[in-house]
Amino acid sequence: MKARVENGTVVKQPFTQDDLQAMYPESSVPTVWTTEFMQSEGIVEVVATAQPNFNRLTEKVVEIAAQYSEADGVWLQTWEVVALSNAEKVAAWDEFVSWVVNATYQRLDNFAATKQYDSILSAASYASSSIQRFAVEGQYAVQARDATLDALFSYLDEVVSMTRPAPSAWEDVEQCLPALVWPE
């Protein structure tokens, strides 16, 4: 990534071939930029950096102008964590809940598949089967589904009430859900 700098301040980031052409519309500009050419035009390489951690339900990360690092002698990509607007928070929450609920059902479906059922719904439909083995598995599927969804929605309530931090990965949610193990 490149930026254009004037008097030590970033004036355009990112800075592209099209930006250079716009500066010199009547001229042809080089497609390969040498170090000397970039220096003469105030164009600098910007070193990519990792985004900071943030709460996806209340914040977002935005890229701001690159900063020069005296210690490293390079321009660094720079990020800022900012609060979401109320509308963005509602959208983030809806997206988060959809993701968590879908991932939870996928977990249940994957568990049911270990006994050759199409889904947790399919496994649960055997709860009243006249065949003992299927009835036991079906009843357990209902119990597992109920316990999992109860734990999930309790977890979501805690996230909403801010008594539990928002997860940064599926593993944060999954550890709050009951273990899924077929009865012997």
H/E element sequence: EEHHEEEHHHH
Strand order of the largest sheet: 2-1-3-5-4
Shape: elongated
Indicate the multimeric state.
single chain
The percent range for helix content is: 40-55%
- Radius of gyration from CA coordinates: 27 Å
Q: How many domains would you count in the coordinates? A: 2
Mean pLDDT: 93
Tally of separate helices: 6
Class from secondary-structure proportions: alpha+beta
Strand fraction equals 15-25%
Largest sheet: 5 strands, mixed
Count of extended strands: 5
First-last Cα distance: 58 Å
Low-confidence stretches: none
Outline:
44% of the residues lie in helices and 19% in strands. The chain is α+β, with helices and mostly antiparallel strands and 184 residues long. It folds into two domains: 2-83, no CATH class; 86-174, no CATH class.
Could you walk me through the main structural features you see in this protein, from its secondary elements to its overall organization?
This protein is α+β, with helices and mostly antiparallel strands. The chain is built from six helices and five strands; from the N terminus they run E-E-H-H-E-E-E-H-H-H-H. It has a five-stranded mixed sheet with strand order 2-1-3-5-4. Helix 3 packs antiparallel against helix 5. The N and C termini lie far apart (58 Å).
Structure characteristics:
5 strands; 2 domains; elongated; 184 residues; 5-stranded mixed beta sheet; alpha+beta
Which helices and strands appear, and what pairs or packs with what?
Blueprint lengths: L1 E5 L2 E4 L4 H7 L11 H7 L1 E5 L11 E11 L4 E10 L2 H28 L6 H5 L7 H29 L9 H5 L10
Parallel strand pairs: 3-5
Antiparallel strand pairs: 1-2, 1-3, 4-5
